[in-house]
């Protein structure tokens, strides 16, 4: 069967208006699961963090985790939501091998948090993303399909199920339909996922590590012809697990759906799988409607009625949120909009702020993280925060620079040693002998030799061509392996040649 060619993106968005929706699942970082006391440690041996409750054994009764409920209320407050005064859990019934009870405890028509918003910025323009609901549920287990080439159930020899994840507190954040984004739709979707991740991380309720599955996005896309008011049929691309992939999934679905519509076909309402290697999506299963899940109130759990006093206590405990923090550091560090954007995009904001707290100036901290260390992270193919160097170590290197013990060239060698596991900055300096030669006696002897080796240059300096002293300074730096105090060396040269 032939595959329909994609429509060029620019043509697609000129003919159709994208309508987006993002459903984000976030695992809360509680010590125990949502309805039992089992641990939630990531990476534990399979099926070692389970009990009769999370396995759904007969007679086992759930009890709601207060810390998890606090976490979802904090998320709701940070997203400007209304917090329900009364709500309850519901059973969502469907069968899948990683669902030990064959139903999921979730919320349906009575969510805990509703009607919020989150503002994001793309290319200098602010987009307000409406939040439909934020509700609590439990996570499922994890299936592993063994054999076959794709890791999916099709073509696998057999499947294994790990129930360690089953029952972990899971927050689902559902946006309202996102319209008016035009050709910026993929960027807006990515910006929303990025801002949401930063917000939840700031709250301290989840590590939101997408590579470990603690934050997963389902991306809904539909298209409507320009000038039309009737929305198209949407697809839902499931479990997109990186910010870049959110953008790519939206872009691909726009190109694919536009090609389907332009050819006279109809978009099928279905779930789709995103493929990281190709940036494409493929069909999954037809999408169920709410009634297919046969929701009904969970009979084993009492309703929740968070008091207004409790909600206000949690509101007062919220930390500085990302948008306010960015405005503050931009003002305190005297950054332009472009400089702030570059810092945020590089994932360097936390690192720079921690380096400043450790004693470095904002300018120096930004210089090291955004230049030398960012370059090394790119070379190694890792995130900046994953480099084996701490903000305290960066601040210590800058302290030695400020004290005249290192210059920038030597400082870069210190970072090289730290990143290579040779120890902290002081140990690297000692082991490699990297301190600047600033002792006048030692430096004067080296300067005398440079003058003796370059008599023509020395004569030019004596004759009043002070700029020629740069060549002698270079000779001193070469003789010391870059360890000389260049400013002091220049001063000594000029003094010795009578040009000071």
From TrEMBL:
Source taxon at top rank: Bacteria
Subunit structure of this chain's protein: Heterotrimer of A, B and C subunits.
UniProt-listed GO biological process terms: glutaminyl-tRNAGln biosynthesis via transamidation; translation
Protein family membership: Belongs to the GatB/GatE family. GatB subfamily.
Assigned EC number: 6.3.5.-
Molecular-function annotations in GO: ATP binding; glutaminyl-tRNA synthase (glutamine-hydrolyzing) activity
Protein's name in the database: Aspartyl/glutamyl-tRNA(Asn/Gln) amidotransferase subunit B
Pfam families: GatB_N, GatB_Yqey
Enzyme class: ligase
Catalytic reaction annotation: L-glutamyl-tRNA(Gln) + L-glutamine + ATP + H2O = L-glutaminyl-tRNA(Gln) + L-glutamate + ADP + phosphate + H(+); L-aspartyl-tRNA(Asn) + L-glutamine + ATP + H2O = L-asparaginyl-tRNA(Asn) + L-glutamate + ADP + phosphate + 2 H(+)
Domain Asn/Gln amidotransferase: 350-497
Name of encoding gene: gatB
InterPro entries: Asn/Gln-tRNA_amidoTrfase_suB/E, Asn/Gln-tRNA_Trfase_suB/E_cat, Asn/Gln_amidotransferase, Asn/Gln_tRNA_amidoTrase-B-like, GatB, GatB_Yqey_C_2, Gln-tRNA_amidoTrfase_suB_CS, Gln_synth/guanido_kin_cat_dom
Keywords per UniProt: ATP-binding, Ligase, Nucleotide-binding, Protein biosynthesis
Function: Allows the formation of correctly charged Asn-tRNA(Asn) or Gln-tRNA(Gln) through the transamidation of misacylated Asp-tRNA(Asn) or Glu-tRNA(Gln) in organisms which lack either or both of asparaginyl-tRNA or glutaminyl-tRNA synthetases. The reaction takes place in the presence of glutamine and ATP through an activated phospho-Asp-tRNA(Asn) or phospho-Glu-tRNA(Gln).
Record bears the keyword Protein biosynthesis: yes
PANTHER family, per database record: GLUTAMYL-TRNA GLN AMIDOTRANSFERASE SUBUNIT B MITOCHONDRIAL AND PROKARYOTIC PET112-RELATED, GLUTAMYL-TRNA(GLN) AMIDOTRANSFERASE SUBUNIT B, MITOCHONDRIAL
């Amino acid at each position: 069967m032939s595959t329909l060619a994609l429509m060029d993106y620019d043509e697609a968005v000129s003919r159709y208006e994208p309508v987006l929706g993002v459903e984000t699942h976030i695992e809360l970082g509680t010590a125990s699961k949502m309805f039992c006391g089992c641990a939630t440690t990531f990476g534990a041996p399979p099926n070692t963090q389970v009990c009769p409750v999370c396995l759904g054994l007969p007679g086992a009764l759930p009890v709601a985790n207060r810390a998890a409920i606090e976490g979802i209320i904090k998320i709701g407050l940070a997203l400007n939501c209304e917090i329900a005064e009364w709500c309850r859990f519901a059973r969502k019934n469907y069968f899948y091998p990683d669902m030990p009870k064959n139903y999921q405890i979730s919320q349906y028509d009575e969510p805990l948090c509703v009607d919020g918003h989150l503002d994001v910025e793309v290319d200098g323009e602010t987009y307000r993303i409406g939040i439909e609901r934020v509700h609590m549920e439990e996570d499922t287990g994890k299936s592993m399909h063994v054999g076959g080439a794709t890791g999916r159930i099709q073509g696998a020899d057999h499947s294994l199920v790990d129930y360690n994840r089953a029952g972990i507190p899971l927050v689902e954040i559902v946006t309202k339909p996102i319209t008016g984004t035009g050709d910026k739709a993929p960027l807006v979707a990515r910006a929303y996922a990025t801002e949401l991740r930063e917000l939840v991380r700031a709250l301290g309720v989840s590590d939101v590590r997408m590579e470990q599955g603690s934050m997963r996005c389902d991306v809904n896309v539909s298209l409507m012809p320009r000038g039309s008011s009737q929305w198209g049929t949407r697809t839902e691309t499931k479990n997109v697990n990186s910010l870049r992939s959110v953008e790519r999934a939206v872009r691909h679905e726009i190109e694919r759906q536009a090609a389907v519509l332009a050819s006279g076909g109809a978009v099928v309402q279905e779930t789709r799988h995103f493929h990281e290697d190709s940036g494409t999506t493929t069909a999954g299963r037809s999408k169920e409607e709410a009634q297919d899940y046969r929701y009904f109130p969970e009979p084993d759990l009492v309703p929740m009625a968070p008091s207004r006093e409790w909600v206000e206590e949690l509101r007062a405990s919220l930390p500085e949120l990302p948008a306010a923090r960015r405005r503050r550091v931009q003002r305190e560090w005297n950054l332009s909009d472009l400089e702030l954007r570059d810092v945020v995009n590089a994932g360097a904001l936390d690192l720079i702020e921690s380096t400043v707290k450790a004693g470095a100036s904002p300018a120096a901290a930004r210089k090291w993280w955004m230049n030398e260390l960012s370059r090394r992270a790119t070379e190694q193919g890792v995130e900046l925060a994953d480099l084996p160097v701490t903000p305290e170590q960066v601040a210590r290197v800058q302290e030695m620079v400020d004290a005249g013990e290192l210059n920038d060239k030597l400082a870069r060698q210190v970072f090289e040693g730290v990143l290579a596991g040779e120890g902290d900055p002081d140990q690297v300096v000692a082991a490699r002998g990297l301190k600047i030669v600033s002792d006048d006696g030692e430096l004067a002897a080296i300067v005398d030799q440079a003058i003796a080796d370059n008599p023509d240059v020395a004569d030019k300096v004596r004759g009043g061509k002070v700029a020629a002293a740069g060549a002698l300074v270079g000779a001193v730096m070469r003789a010391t392996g870059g360890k000389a105090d260049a400013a002091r060396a220049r001063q000594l040269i000029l003094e010795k040649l009578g040009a000071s």
